Amino acid sequence: MPTTGFRVRRTGRARDGADGATPGRAPEALVLLCSVGAAAATVAQPFALGRTLDLLLRDGGADGAAGRWLALSAALLLGELLLDSLTSLFTGRCNAVWTASVRSRAFDGLLRAVPDHARPFTPGDVGTRLTLNAADAGGAPAARAALAASMVTPVGALAALAVVDVWVAACVLAGLPALALVLRTFARDTGASVAAYQNAQSQLASRLLEALEGAATIAAAGTRARERARVLEPLTRLDALGRRMWTLHGRALGRSGVLVPLLTLAATAVGGLRLTSGALSVGELLAVCRYAQLTAGVGGAASLLGAVVRGREARNRTLALADMPALEHGTRRLPPAGPGDLELRGVRVVRDGRQVLRADGVRVPGGTTAAVVGRSGAGKSVLAAVAGRLIDPDEGHVLLDGVRLDRLTREALRTEVAYAFERPAPVGGTVAEAVAAGPRRVSPEQVREACRAAGADGFVRRLPSGYDTPLSAAPLSGGEYQRLGLARAFAHAGRLLIMDDATSSLDTATEHEVDRALRHSVRPGTRLVVAHRPSVAARADLVIWLEDGGVRAVAPHRELWDVAGYRAVFGAGAPRTGTTPRPRSEGVRR
Fold first, then answer.
1. Where are the beta strands (DSSP E) in 435-525?
2. Fewer Cβ close by (within 10 Å): the C or N end of the chain?
3. pLDDT single digits (tens) 559-582
């Protein structure tokens, strides 16, 4: 039996970029093409120079052949410079488009993810993945192309060396396995170090953001020194990992730096012997020495290999956001003009092997308000999430006007089900845009009406530019942010509105005004309200009383108030008046 609590789909790797299209291989191919062209020109130059030198030494270039070969050498040099410039240009473009693609896909996956799957990623960790890691991942395709092209030079040089003199080629070839071993060891050790380094970066960023959010608490508690030590604690590990990465890189370069001169020296010695025996000309010796250097230059691929390894690890970290499970949606729509009947049939939600919600036969008639109450951990927010399909239950179904929520299209679901949360996160450039953001098209007048209903119109008008004030420039309190969240929910209210502790930061008088406006100024529909105050439950038509993840009773507040366990949910003692009717729900103990 599954215990994840979600019916999910994987976003897959088909979506890249903000518009869902991948950059393709064209940017990488251009880098590869120009790099290979530059490498080919590099390989051809020693032969052309050697040939030119031989012709000049033989007859002084009287027949003009030396001039033609000299012109060819100059053309090859200019071609190499031009191709190197184009490689730099296309590398920058390739890095930019792939970084944007990886970053957009990760962000898209984060927004589409089931909330419970996204919650383990802290803001600092997400920020690191979308910035530093995405940039490293975006640089991998160009680095991979450059690495492939860098192999053209030593392979081509070795082939040309074999054409010029097979004995010198054999001498150089004998030393290449040592260089290959250096690169292999570097790639293996660097991969683990890079992954650990990137994890330490995310940990440091997460702790720093936590400290910034709790700056007032830290100052009031006088724990600045301790908090500073806690935030910077990963820095020691980051330093050690960084030093190890540079040590590995330096070791690879150092070893290749020793092997390359040795190979070049050996090739020069063999070439000199071949020259004295008459098997090589002076020009061919020049070509041999240069080709030996180019062939041994395979050790210089360590930097590119490091970039590829770093990019691979960074891509895995960044695209972990894109690969988070997302809810599947169906093809059905709700019946027109439905009242908003909400029903939970055989619903069961399990987390880490523990049942956190069970609800069967719970029905909220259309147009009524149901308060969800219970002690902390009773499952109130889980029920609110299931009722509006932020998550799917492990078992059972939730129906709205007789249609299962998991069979609705995304548009139908989000148009008819609106949410208001305890800690809303308004999005949009201005206050008005934050309230208008949602599935419905909302006019400026509707924005103002929603703000009036949520008790937000007064403080919004006092802002520097009123409704046109940028959110970043709006000095709002927690309660004011909560009222903006309510206003956004009111502006987009459909046939079901779910308020998950959305009035916790409001005073009693404001909460009462919001409730009155909700009944008379907001689009009629069904309301599901997570409540902690008895006054909220008293104003509701029904109360869904949760206890230990189960539904203990569904009845009006006045009928439940005579039950001691129900009063205890609100910290209340004995009822002030006489006895009240026994709750209609079964299984309720007094």
1. 496-500
2. N
3. 999 999 999 998 866 555 443 344
